[in-house]
Amino acid sequence: MSHKVIITTDTGSDMRPENLRKFHIDGMIPFHITLGDKSFKDFYECQPDDLFRYFDETHQVPKTAACSPHDFIEFFTPFAEKGCDIVHIAMNSVFSSSYANSLAAAKEISEKYSVEVYSVDTYTLTGAQALMAIRAAELRDGGMAAREISEEIKAMVPHIRTNFLLGGMNYAAKGGRCSMLVAFGANLLKLYPMMHIDEKGIITSPKKFRGSVESVQNQYMDYVLSLADQYADYRRVIIGYTSDNKALIANMHRRLKEYGKFQEIVESVSNCTTATHGGPNTIYMIFADKD
Hints:
Layout (H helix, E strand, L loop, with lengths): L4 E6 L6 H6 L4 E3 L2 E4 L2 E4 L6 H11 L4 E3 L3 H13 L3 E6 L7 H16 L3 E5 L4 H16 L4 H11 L3 E6 L4 H5 L5 H10 L1 E7 L5 E8 L2 H19 E10 L4 H14 L5 E5 L2 H7 L4 E7 L2
Parallel strand pairs: 1-2, 1-6, 6-7, 11-12
Antiparallel strand pairs: 3-4, 3-5, 8-9, 8-13, 9-10, 11-13
Helix pairs in contact: 3-4, 5-6, 9-10
């Protein structure tokens, strides 16, 4: 007897309520965000503007903490009690213990309720993770069982191009991901790094752009669209940003409309988990490779 399949993800995916509803994704578990001596649930109790305000006031980068096994047990249980199988689309295990914790919970839940629970390590995050969650929901809606969905999503991992442009180096420096000296030099020279996550979950900075914020963002989009010319599956592109910059958002839409090849543009706003590491004015434009 086949069970109903539930698709879930975490707030590292930058999914927003409207996109969860649109693509029939059933739940999003929050990471924990610490501001000073207070802890908040990402998205549900804390938004990127709260982080940026805290940084401006304290000059300290907020801290993030993974979902615990107990968090996952509480998250999965209502679905399992209804006899549903679950496919969870997890944030990069290189960055967080959340994936490992989801596996521990999946084992306990599957044994207790006699359902299948699979957690997929995406080896990525943000819009790339969202793309995989959306695809999982499409496969579910097409009638695929949980085990097969998890295998299909695992096979996507090498075919997602995760490139994002940092809005500056201050958050990376304060968070210990680069030295203050490097950040000072980059800011002085108006250098903005593009970050890339490979199929093993490793992050590198293969390119840097120089100029004003507007100029650099256009250089980044030029580069990503040149990759799209060679590799893109044109069914969908996800664009995202950490700051509510109306001009920037409009420019991204304009560029993609002029490009004219993607069938669907999905817009997102980063949740706190990713905004903590990117800082304000970080943007991304992410797609999957064609078959």
